[in-house]
Amino acid sequence: MGLLLKNANIVTDKDKFLADVYIENGVISKIGENLNVKAERTIDLTGKYLMPGGIDVHTHFDIDVGIARSADNFYTGSLAAAYGGTTTIVDHMGFGPKGCNLHHQLDYYHNLAKDSVIDYSFHGVIQHIDQNILGEIDQMIEDGIPSFKGYMTYGYKLSDIEMLKLSEKLSKSGGLLTVHPENNDIIDFFREKFAAENKLSPIYHAKSRSDKCEGEAVNRMIDITNMTNCPLYIVHLSCNDALEHIKKAIDKGQKVYAETCPQYLVLDEDLYNRKDGVKYICSPPIREKSHQDKLWEGIQNGYIQTIATDHCSFNYELKKEMGEKDFRNCPNGLPGVETRMSIIFSEGVSKGRINLNKFVELVSTNPAKIFGMYPKKGAIQIGSDADLVVIDPKLKKIITAKELHENVDYTPFEGIEIVGCPVMTISQGEVIVENNKFVGEKGRGKFIKRNPFKS
Ligand code: URP
Ligand code: ZN
Ligand code: ZN
After folding, report:
1. What is d(CA 344, CA 264) in angstroms, rounded to the nearest whole number?
2. In 3-state terms, what secondary structure has residue 11?
3. What's the start-to-end Cα distance of the chain, in Å?
4. What three-state secondary structure class fits 227?
5. Which is deepest, 118, 158, 271, 428, by most CB within 10 Å?
6. What pLDDT score does 1 carry?
7. Cα separations (Å) of 207 from 193, 212, 283?
């Protein structure tokens, strides 16, 4: 006998209707009005929305960035995700030892992720290009990893020729290229210049990697992947310059996708001028306020297809603080895996910027489709995994780190008022969060073997 959800106001990316949902063996087995089935447990969802569980396709759990290891591992990070209504994460693997192959990191991450409380997958990480790496890509896809990330900055940045070779291979193999786009030379130039002028407070982090720096890199990757006919996914889009390039490419029919994150929609550059400005250091940086409306417009018009978090948490105390006197010493990244769904529901749906279907599309269905998990994930259909979130549209909360479950001593979203919050999370048919309590087991999450890219 299974779980019966009664009187659910079901919302998917396309529909909104009142029905009951019956779940057996972790999957949705019946959807209909007044279902007459014997259930082990029945939950009345009158007045609440039932949606596909959140899918966050950009996290960094248990990542070692050289100067620090992140505060959240796969257990604490996935727990926080579950509290926030997210039922699947796709983690960007960190860099491994110089010269390592792709499976080195995949094996390492399988081990790191075994305590996850929700389902998970990984994006492959490309540190260098040679015949061995290119030759390994087909096996990675076979192993359920069809998306790969190339960085245009940081230690293992790829050159244009490496991006060309990588994208040519991915386009032939059913892979998707995800890119961290920032022009490394521009960053180096301004870092050196500001250091020489003793301008090292957090605001100079933002000034050293401007919107032009991101826009140029996005445009270059659009051209490179156009030449190789490779699908391109831009991670953590933060600014209008980059968005304008993406719009043009999409309008011409190129397979380009863009992800933004809550921090770029609700926070602005002024925060870097605060005494605790290091708390907001991430790359690309938080932009001037004017970019927020442009990103919302991009979302409304379908040029931005997903909202993820780039959750990469470091404690303020001792870790982010390392950058107080010199922004270059601050580990980059922000927490956010727990607050994504409520911030986007509140700022998006409750404030009238997007409708309910668009919300589901952005936080669940599009991530599932782009990253090869649909309709197992991201759908409320017979046969889909019963990964679901219940949202109370009237519930109000003020975000505060004290009440979150992320294993980190601050949230960049402290004090933001939320209208509409996840109140129950169901993963593979099991209620794992209810009454603000996690009731699942450590390590219950499963690795999800993803399908090759399909446009
Ligand atoms: O600052 C950030 N975003 N850190 C995480 C790594 C990345 O660039 O995605
Ligand atoms: Zn990045
Ligand atoms: Zn990231």
Report:
1. 11
2. strand
3. 38
4. helix
5. 118
6. 85
7. 11, 11, 11
Residue 348 — left, alpha, or beta (φ > 0 → left; ψ -120 to 50 → alpha)? alpha
Give the strand pairing for 437-438 and 119-125: unpaired
Helix axis angle, 211-228 relative to 160-173, nearest 10°? Answer: 50
Q: How far apart are CA 419 and CA 397, in angstroms?
A: 7
- The structure tokens 């900055």 sit at 153
The pTM for the full model equals 0.98
Q: What is the pLDDT of residues 65-104, one digit of tens each?
A: 999 999 999 999 999 999 999 999 999 999 999 999 999 9
- Copy the structure tokens of residue 293: 């409306």
Cα-Cα-Cα-Cα torsion 124, 449, 63, 443, nearest 10 degrees, comes to -170
Q: What is the pLDDT of residues 110-163, one digit of tens each?
A: 999 999 999 999 999 999 999 999 999 999 999 999 999 999 999 999 999 999
- Please work out whether the CB of residue 283 comes within 6 Å of at least one atom of ligand 1: yes
Q: What is the pLDDT of residues 39-66, one digit of tens each?
A: 999 999 999 999 999 999 999 999 999 9
pLDDT, tens digit, 9 for 90 and up, residues 272-283: 999 999 999 999
Instruction: Please work out whether the CB of residue 333 comes within 6 Å of at least one atom of ligand 1.
Output: yes
Tell me the two tokens of residue 187.
Answer: 């960053």
8 Å CB contact between 49 and 423: no
Amino acid (one-letter) located at 30: K
Distance, CA of 232 to CA of 75 (rounded, Å): 30
Q: Which of 57, 59, 60, 208 to mutate for ligand 1's pocket (most ligand atoms within 8 Å of CB)?
A: 60
Mean pLDDT for the stretch of residues 285-308: 98
C-alpha–C-alpha distance, residues 433 and 398, integer Å: 19
> Do the strands 119-125 and 147-151 form a parallel or antiparallel pair, or are they unpaired?
parallel
- How large is the angle between the packed helices 240-251 and 290-300, nearest 10 degrees? 20
pLDDT bin (cut points 50, 70, 90) of residue 455 is confident
Give the closest residue (by CA) to ligand 1 atom 5: 333
Residue type, 121: S
- CA-closest residue to ligand 1 atom 9: 310
